[in-house]
Amino acid sequence: MAEINHFEYGWITPALSYALSVLGSCLGLVCAGRIRTAQTPGQRALWGTLAALALGGTAIWTMHFMAMLGFAVDGTRIRYDVPVTVASAAFAIGAVGIGLAIVGTGRVSVPRIAVGGLFTGAGVAAMHYTGMAAMRLNGSLRYDQTRVILSVVIAVVAATVALWLAVTVRRGLAIFASALVMGIAVNGMHFTGMSALSVHLHEQRGEVTGAEVSTLLVPIILAVIFVVVGLVYALLAAPTDEDRAAAAYLDGRRIDPPEEPMSPAPPAADPVGLRARSTFGAGTPFPSRRDTPPR
């Protein structure tokens, strides 16, 4: 059995993979929050697609291959089958997109989130092991079944939490904190799955065909840049509630702000001495001149 090194470049690759997962989670949660507030089915489909690209593409798939930069096996070179690698990306983006479609429409409920999380988590696990199956080396891959099941469970739990956060979190600080937690979950699933792997080298060494991970890194980085820039532009260009209210006003459909509860009216001004004289003697009439004793 060959010796495996998951951190060939130290903590640089796991730190970068965690940063990518947090970045993708932040953008994905913001886009997912726009799904339920969208005005038309086309807008909901747009925000759902953008959220799937951010979560499935950046937070999960790109994180996976950034972490794989630090993966090495003694005694063999590692290459990747490009079509299988692309298929793993399609698994991640498609699974997240379907999960968001399940929870992003209709009434939010625990069964709906659970079904979406189960489907999305299974898709994330399929992405991971499909990406591992894309590896080409002079050896065979074997997995510890218990750890594989544990990684799938982590993926399902992480996906369920991600979908729940996608439909409930709205404030900026909460979104950032949620993205930090999601980054831990995504990386935890990846390295749990990687810990289940063992490599048995072949006695006869042959030519390893495929693309090196460094070759795949350039298009992956370019794709991340384009996706992030596009998502940021879409978020900045999206109309806010104030913009919609202004547009409705200009169209003649004025939207008045909600009426505030009226505060109690202040007491009327009291002429000097009037109230005091009206209550003089607790209801006793004022003395008249006849009641006044003679001097």
From TrEMBL:
Any coiled-coil ranges, and where? none
Which keywords label this protein?
Membrane, Transmembrane, Transmembrane helix
Q: What is this protein called?
A: Signal protein
According to the record, the residues making up region (Disordered) are 251-295
The organism of origin for this protein = Micromonospora endolithica
- State a GO cellular component annotated for this protein: membrane
Residues in MHYT domain copies = 9-200
Segments passing through the bilayer = 15-33, 45-72, 84-103, 110-129, 149-167, 174-196, 216-236
> What InterPro entries does the database record attribute to this sequence?
MHYT_dom
Query: Where along the chain is composition biased (Pro residues)?
Result: 260-269
| One Pfam family recorded for the sequence | MHYT
